[in-house]
Amino acid sequence: DSIPVITIDGPTASGKGTVAQRVAEALHFHYLDSGALYRLTALSALRARVALDDEPALAQTAAGMRPSFRDGNVLLDDVDVSTDIRAEEVGNAASKIAALPAVRRALVDLQLRFRQAPGLIADGRDMGTVIFPDACLKVFLTASAEARAERRYKQLIDKGFSANINDLLKDLNERDARDANRAVAPLRPAEGAYLLDTSNLTVNQAVEQVLGWYAAVR
Ligand code: C5P
């Protein structure tokens, strides 16, 4: 496939989403928020009261979804669920079901379909390692747990959710451990990935760094 892909993987609340969207805008590329697909699956499962360890039923839930993405919003059956999928409860459920191989398999095709001209920025945990191994640029974005907890706190408050910074830090560490230690598609830098620690970087600086790397490989 000659359509260029830039992958940005990293732990939760590392700033991937913001950086990836800004890079996509700058290059006029499409944008895949793969975490949103796991969150959508989790939301659908919670609503349908599917048990979070019923792997076949969860895979069916994932395969049966017909989400659409419009102007940065996520719709499920024509209802905007962009806010609902950001709730911590949904994020935690997403991280649990993301450890199930059948769920991951059920979401592969949906992710591959985002690869459209003139190019794609894909953000997640396994974009460079599993879904787009032939990406022309792979970035692994990190930030300290404290910096990430603070960002997640601000995000939630801005969206009108209540939040507690210590609970967030605990959740974040649990989710990191689950993402990094699972048997399928564990979170780790892809071979050849550029590491970017954003703890002390502004969004602009991180975006400029990624664009600079891309300019060098394109
Ligand atoms: O990135 P975000 O926090 O929205 O992702 C929600 C959850 O989905 C993560 O905690 C992770 O467990 C899972 N995920 C994944 N693979 C991806 C993207 C997200 O396992 N490519």
Automatic annotation (TrEMBL):
Its main location: cytoplasm. It is found in: Cytoplasm. GO terms for biological process: nucleobase-containing small molecule interconversion; pyrimidine nucleotide metabolic process. InterPro entries: Cytidylate_kin, Cytidylate_kinase_dom, P-loop_NTPase. Residues 6-212 form the Cytidylate kinase domain. GO terms for molecular function: ATP binding; dCMP kinase activity. The keyword Ribonucleoprotein does not apply. Keywords: ATP-binding, Cytoplasm, Kinase, Nucleotide-binding, Transferase. It catalyses: CMP + ATP = CDP + ADP; dCMP + ATP = dCDP + ADP. Its EC number is 2.7.4.25. Pfam families: Cytidylate_kin. ATP binds at G10, P11, T12, A13, S14, G15, K16, G17, T18. The keyword Transferase applies. GO terms for cellular component: cytosol. Belongs to the cytidylate kinase family. Type 1 subfamily. This is Cytidylate kinase.
